[in-house]
Design goal:
Oligomer: single chain
Distance between the termini: 75 Å
Largest sheet: 16 strands, mixed
Radius of gyration: 21 Å
Helix content: 10-25%
Number of helices: 8
């Protein structure tokens, strides 16, 4: 009888074989979402060496250890290239946590329930938009949990960024210059609402009369005084061949203006290295990018849990690294058993400063855990890496209905060519009393209309 050894070489061969066949279906020992459908546990789908950094490293690393320049070569193959550079050359450190095997701790509960319930019902229509078998807009959850192509992974991500029907993120932003000092500090709010594919808010799955819209999304600034009242509203059509409508309120003009919507590679505020295009690594309509292809599969170290900071009353995070100890968030990472790397090229942006981007997706959830863009010469240009969390830790929790709140917790947006870093963190509250929340039906009137922009600008 032949004995199969489920070691690193076995997993590597399986991943390479899937890549050669052009298949991205997740799982090594069995299809991942068949395992998830049983009880939400991914363990059956992967060998032990992909479920523990200690097993993967053959005892050289374990949960609780820290990755630094002293040992980063051990895990170079588990990091995106710019994150590796940050650890090796810039003093970034990463704390290792055990691998999360319960998928219900990696996304909102209702979103995952809908993903399981509606599994297998999604398809693309003639225009390349996600629809049901009846040709209607999507009805909720991940439309392609068993994604087989790069297009399916990006389509699911673009359809629902934050995976809640409505979200309001209270955010603090810090822009760090070459000296390591913080050049700019901002407080801002970011709101999202989905008129379709709703799993919590009534009416569902569609907001009656708005089925032709994919999302309403706004960003507004409250600090410092120089930008207080500046706000923008994106209204996305469901048709992913069309650009959103972009409106803005600038306090010096005291009126709403409509802006060109294809200028998505420029910062909204001075000092920032974060662009509209970067949002959730899929900030542009699906078909304004193209040539989606899977270019890699394998394990990855990423911040998919443990990112919440309950010890601070406003959820604020500690920093380290760089010339002044202010360049990086303290970050907890874990071994993701399988990540799928998808490459895409901008096809409707003739003046785009980037030639392509690569996004690392957690195969279990379809979440973007890292992104690197490349300039027109093909050189690494810009990175985006996020940390996520179930807001339940240290005996504390933030509830979202019947279940703990799940969301992103902090983000790095880094320009490797200039050395400038933008750090963002989701906090409990920013100036003006704006608080992070999910699935609040009042978010639309407060943040997602032109009247709301005027009101915020005059507050």
């Amino acid at each position: 009888m032949r004995v199969i050894r489920y070691d690193r070489e076995y997993s590597r061969r399986q991943f390479l074989g899937g890549l050669v066949r052009g298949a991205a279906t997740a799982g090594v020992l069995m299809p991942l979402w068949d395992a998830v459908a049983k009880d939400g546990d991914v363990t059956r789908a992967y060998p032990e060496e992909l479920l523990s950094i200690e097993n993967w490293s053959k005892g050289k690393l374990k949960a609780g250890d820290e990755i630094s320049a002293a040992n980063v070569e051990l895990v170079k193959d588990l990091l995106e290239p710019i994150k590796y550079h940050q650890v090796a050359k810039m003093g970034r450190r990463l704390r290792i946590a055990p691998t999360t095997t319960d998928i219900f701790r990696l996304s909102p509960w209702e979103y995952l329930e809908a993903s399981l319930k509606n599994r297998g019902q999604a398809q693309f229509d003639a225009q390349g938009n996600i629809v049901t078998a009846q040709g209607k807009p999507w009805i909720g959850g991940n439309p392609f949990p068993d994604a087989r192509t790069g297009l399916e992974l990006f389509a699911s991500l673009t359809l629902s960024w934050g995976r809640h029907d409505a979200s309001m993120y209270a955010i603090k932003e810090y822009d760090v210059g070459l000296s390591g000092e913080i050049d700019f500090r901002y407080e801002l709010g970011w709101a999202e609402l989905s008129p379709v594919a709703r799993v919590s808010l009534e009416p569902r799955p569609y907001w009656t009369g708005k089925e032709d819209k994919l999302r309403y999304q706004s960003v507004f600034f409250v600090k410092p005084d120089a930008v207080n009242g500046t706000s923008y509203l994106n209204i996305w059509p469901y048709d992913q061949n069309r650009f959103p409508e972009l409106y803005g309120y600038l306090p010096e003009f005291k009126r709403i203006r409509q802006f060109p919507t294809d200028q998505r590679f420029e910062p909204l505020i001075p000092g920032s290295t974060l662009y509209l295009s970067d949002a959730w690594a899929a900030g542009d309509p699906l078909h304004t990018w193209g040539n989606y292809k899977i270019v890699g599969r394998g394990p990855l170290l990423a911040g998919v849990s443990g990112g919440w900071s309950p010890a601070h009353p406003n959820w604020e995070h500690r920093t380290h690294g760089g010339p002044k100890g202010l360049s990086f968030w303290d970050t907890t990472v874990e071994l993701v058993p399988e990540a799928i790397v998808v490459e895409a090229e901008p096809v409707k942006f003739p003046r785009a400063p980037v030639s392509k981007k690569r996004v690392w997706f957690d195969a279990r959830t379809g979440l973007p855990v890292g992104m690197v863009t490349y300039d027109r010469r093909g050189e690494p240009y810009h990175s985006f890496d996020a940390a996520f969390a179930l807001y339940e830790a240290g005996g504390k929790s933030v509830m979202d209905g019947k279940h703990p709140y799940w969301s992103w917790s902090h983000v790095h947006a880094f320009n490797i060519q200039t050395g400038h870093m933008t750090r963002l963190e989701q906090v409990r509250e920013i100036a003006g009393g704006h608080r992070s929340s999910a699935n609040d039906p009042g978010l639309y009137e407060r943040y997602l209309t032109n009247a709301a922009l005027m009101r915020l600008g005059r507050a």
